Amino acid sequence: DTGVSQDPRHKITKRGQNVTFRCDPISEHNRLYWYRQTLGQGPEFLTYFQNEAQLEKSRLLSDRFSAERPKGSFSTLEIQRTEQGDSAMYLCASSLTTDSPLHFGNGTRLTVT
Amino acid sequence: AQKITQTQPGMFVQEKEAVTLDCTYDTSDQSYGLFWYKQPSSGEMIFLIYQGSYDEQNATEGRYSLNFQKARKSANLVISASQLGDSAMYFCAMRSILTGGGNKLTFGTGTQLKVEL
Hints:
The structure holds two protein chains of two kinds.
Chain A: E1 5-7, E2 10-13, E3 19-24, E4 31-37, E5 44-50, E6 53-57, E7 65-68, E8 75-79, E9 88-95, E10 103-104, E11 108-112
Parallel strand pairs in A: 2-11
Antiparallel strand pairs in A: 1-3, 3-8, 4-5, 4-9, 5-6, 7-8, 9-10, 9-11
Chain B: E1 3-5, E2 10-14, E3 19-21, E4 24-26, E5 33-39, E6 46-52, E7 60-61, E8 64-69, E9 74-79, E10 88-97, E11 103-107, E12 111-116
Parallel strand pairs in B: 2-12
Antiparallel strand pairs in B: 1-4, 3-9, 5-6, 5-10, 7-8, 8-9, 10-11, 10-12
């Protein structure tokens, strides 16, 4: 069990640029989640995949956000035309079954200047 | 809609003492699950303990126990014999089941625990 891996750990970008984050879940986990955490708050759900299918999206996920999990393994989260309000920690998590806990990665901290 | 309330923004505890972190919840679901996660300054969310709404026994995992009072809608985390490494942010969360069996967690705002010598 190598844990959930996220890359990069930190990203600084200028407003208006596009950014992409990667998440590698625990290998046998078919459920993958993206959450966003702003300063002083708990994580908020963004989206959920089972294998390669994106089954749920939060209304927090605006049109500028897109997530993919093309082969049911790693996932990417892209933010287009970044805004300062996008500055946050983006957390990826995976789980094996409905009853098993979510295992989170270390997150990608995005700063939009 | 589900809601988690953590009313203690910060807590201090002496090393080797026990500490209780409060969590109350609100849900209309008959079946639900409650989680506690620890988030050190490194940012990773570490799973600590889980309590199902139909579990008759309070959950325990090593030095962590969950004081589950269903009628009061509370799920407090008790950490016994605190260690310096327990200093972190602690989040209570409730799950709802998503399409296809996924778990959506609704988190509280967290409690920052500081363990002192």
